[in-house]
């Protein structure tokens, strides 16, 4: 049932079995598993059914590090949250990404890909994509800009490919898709305009007793529950934990100091190099392009491990073919709120590129621009903290310290490009030239905006190295769980939402199995 | 002037062998020019630096290969060497280009001959 805080008598206390804070992809996925069970569920949404500019202001914060992160871009306070604006690009993590790696400090998840497989399948259904397609090598028969993936599909290849499927608009806006399931639900209330201002611990400091909520019109209430799930994204989850510091000076779940630490994103390093093709084969045929998936190059897991580099994606593109380059610096258009729904459509922008390329000689050049998308390693220095100033609800704003790109990230760029050059050389299908910008070090500057927020309440098998355990429960607190990319131990290079949904479905399943 | 029979024969032999040597050398020199004129590379010649890399040994090796194998076979052998070097990671940077060690020498010689 949909409710609004203004319609609930002020200062009242409501009691539920499970309280889920946030109605984005993570919150919806957890709640979906609990829908129509015997449990009484409440979902707290800071904004309304649709985004409202005044509630978006609550996302504002400050940057204090050398790299700038748009704290209010790519975050929506509304039912469905960021699923309303994401590009719908999905790809699962690879199995080796869950492993501990000697050259990546703080790597190693307490779960494996096997723990997520069945949830990836469920998540694929939710998003209208096909799980099996991620592992269907037929897709490697395709060609992009004259470079065939099939040729890389050799046992001794340095490169491999990953398939990214694109969830269409109808399926990827989870708010719109699942509104019809949640609105009439008898066991689930969704309270709009209910921003959580604080988590309240009981006197022992081991259980969350309630959360305080407020709207921008001065209405306030308290929600009591047996189980609480924070599902507000990797910037808001740590903010709430840090701001709830009545009992513990450093905030809740922060004994080891990891709340807010190890922030990660996916910097895209453009102007890396040019791929010069030796073959005369030209651009992808429009007819071959099915428009619901993308294949990207990267070093094979074996080669990645051998060369001790992070995961990455090597993308080749012809910017000349783009109708509007800013389409690809996606976050920039998010800042223009009113144009959001009208203008952004990943599939159509890809299609435009393909159409431009196809059959038009002026765009069919023999060389392509090469860019590298990067996994970021977990680093203590990349840290979200509380600012000294507060928002209108009295919650301290975010102070983000995001460091420059680290040495291993730079090495990954250089080594991945050289490895691609080796592969093209072995096959004699192309040569690569580093761009001057990269050789001069200019490409290493992270360009705003970067829209993926990861790792601020990391999962670990030990309370000394993380915030949540393998079941997403906060160490030291009996009834507080966290859903979303903030629990990711490492960031991978793939878009996080698909894994957020899979992991949240897993958490929902776990909560369902618990006697509440 | 009287020329002895021995001197006459010796001079003749020297002249013939010199002629043969000159002819052979010219053919190989023509071959190497032909090789580099026809050598296809995606890397523009203006991007090849006048590097200090030691190419004389490689040049001699190439001449010897041309003399014994001919142009077509030599190109095939060199291509294989380049492919093997990419496989083994024997690569270097040349004015930003990522090239194999042999490829770098070939490109430098190409600049010299073409």
Structural commentary:
The complex is a heterodimer of chains A (516) and B (114). Chain A has 13 helices and 20 strands. Chain A has helices at residues 25-34, 53-56, 113-127, 169-172, 174-182, 233-243, 301-307, 331-334, 340-343, 346-357, 407-427, 436-439, 497-513, and strands spanning 2-4, 12-21, 41-44, 61-63, 89-90, 143-144, 147-148, 159-166, 188-192, 195-201, 208-214, 220-230, 268-277, 293-299, 312-317, 367-374, 383-390, 396-401, 430-434, 480-482. In chain A, strand 11 and strand 12 form a beta hairpin. In chain A, helix 1 packs parallel to helix 13 (497-513) and helix 3 (113-127) crosses helix 13. Chain A is globular. Residues 281-290 and 319-364 of chain A have low confidence and may be disordered. Chain B has one domain (5-113). Helices cover 69% and strands 7% of the residues of chain B. In chain B, strands 1-2 form a two-stranded antiparallel sheet.
């Amino acid at each position: 049932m949909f409710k609004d805080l203004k319609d609930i008598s002020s200062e009242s206390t409501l009691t539920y079995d499970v309280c889920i804070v946030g109605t984005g992809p993570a919150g919806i996925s957890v709640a979906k598993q609990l829908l129509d069970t015997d449990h009484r569920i409440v979902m707290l949404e800071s904004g309304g059914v649709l985004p409202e500019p005044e509630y978006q202001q609550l996302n504002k914060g400050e940057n204090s590090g050398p790299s700038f992160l748009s704290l209010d871009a790519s975050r929506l306070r509304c039912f469905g949250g960021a699923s309303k604006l994401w590009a719908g690009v999905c790809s699962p993590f690879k199995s080796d990404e869950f492993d501990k790696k000697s050259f990546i400090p703080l790597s190693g998840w307490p779960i494996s890909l096997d723990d997520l497989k069945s949830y990836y399948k469920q998540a694929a259904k939710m998003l209208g994509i096909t799980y099996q397609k991620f592992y269907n090598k037929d897709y490697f028969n395709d060609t992009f800009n004259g470079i065939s993936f099939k040729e890389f599909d050799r046992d001794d290849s340095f490169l491999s490919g990953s398939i990214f499927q694109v969830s269409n608009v109808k399926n990827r806006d989870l708010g719109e898709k699942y509104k019809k399931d949640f609105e009439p639900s008898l066991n689930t209330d969704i309270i709009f305009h209910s921003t959580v201002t604080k988590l309240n611990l009981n006197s022992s400091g081991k259980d969350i007793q309630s959360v305080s909520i407020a709207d921008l019109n001065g209405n306030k209430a308290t929600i009591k529950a047996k189980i609480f799930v924070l599902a507000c994204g990797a910037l808001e989850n740590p903010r709430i934990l840090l701001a709830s510091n009545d009992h513990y000076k450093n905030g809740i779940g922060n004994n080891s100091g990891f709340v807010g630490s190890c922030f990660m994103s996916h910097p895209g390093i453009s102007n890396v190099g040019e791929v010069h093709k030796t073959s005369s084969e030209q651009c992808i045929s429009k007819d071959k392009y099915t428009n619901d998936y993308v294949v990207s190059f990267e070093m094979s897991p074996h080669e990645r491990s051998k060369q001790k580099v992070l995961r990455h994606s090597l993308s080749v593109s012809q910017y000349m073919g783009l109708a509007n380059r800013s389409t690809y610096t996606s976050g920039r258009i998010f800042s223009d709120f009113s144009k959001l729904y009208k203008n952004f459509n990943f599939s159509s922008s890809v299609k435009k590129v393909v159409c431009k390329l196809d059959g038009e000689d002026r765009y069919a050049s023999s060389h392509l621009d090469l860019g590298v998308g990067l996994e970021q390693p977990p680093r203590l220095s990349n840290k979200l903290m509380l600012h000294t100033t507060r928002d209108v609800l009295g919650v301290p704003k975010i102070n983000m310290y995001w460091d420059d790109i680290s040495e291993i990230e730079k090495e990954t760029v250089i080594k991945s490009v050289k490895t691609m050059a080796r592969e093209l050389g072995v096959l004699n299908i192309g040569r690569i030239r580093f761009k001057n910008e990269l050789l001069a070090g200019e490409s290493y500057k992270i360009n705003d905006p970067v829209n993926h927020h990861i790792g601020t309440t990391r999962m670990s098998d030990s309370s000394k190295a993380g915030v949540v355990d393998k079941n997403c429960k906060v160490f030291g607190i009996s009834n507080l769980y966290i859903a979303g990319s903030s629990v990711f131990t490492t960031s991978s290079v793939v878009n996080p939402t698909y894994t957020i949904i899979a992991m949240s479905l897993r958490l929902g399943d776990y909560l369902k199995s618990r006697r509440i | 002037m009287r020329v002895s029979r021995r001197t006459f024969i010796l001079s003749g032999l020297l002249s013939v062998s010199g002629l043969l040597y000159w002819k052979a050398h010219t053919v190989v020199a023509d071959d190497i020019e032909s090789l580099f004129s026809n050598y296809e590379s995606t890397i523009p010649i203006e991007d090849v630096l006048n590097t200090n890399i030691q190419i004389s040994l490689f040049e001699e090796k190439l001449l010897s290969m041309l003399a014994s194998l001919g142009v077509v076979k030599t190109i095939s052998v060199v291509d294989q060497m380049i492919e093997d070097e990419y496989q083994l990671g024997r690569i270097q940077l040349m004015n930003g280009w990522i090239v194999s060690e042999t490829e770098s020498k070939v490109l430098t010689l190409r600049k010299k001959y073409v």
